[in-house]
Predict the 3D structure of the following.
Amino acid sequence: MEILRQIAAIGFVFALLGAATWWLRARSRGTLGLIRPRNSGLQIIDRVQLTSQHSVHILKSGERELTIAVHPAGCTLLATRIHDKEKL
């Protein structure tokens, strides 16, 4: 009888774990909008993989373009360019 109670408890824990996983996946898809920002305004323009751990990224945020180097020690801002709307 005790073994049935333990099996039921384990089944209940697995059911809770499955429900929590399903709920977190639904949140990450943006249905509740709490994990992923809906419109952050940051766009990835281009990425060049130099080695397996080194790459260069060009990002756009509003009117700014950022060139960033990514390496094992972190990130380094290489250049910033601001676009004038009047010139376009």
Notes: The two ends are 78 Å apart (CA to CA). The first strand starts at residue 42 and ends at 49. Residues 31-35 have pLDDT under 50 and may be disordered. The chain is about 30% helix and 35% strand.
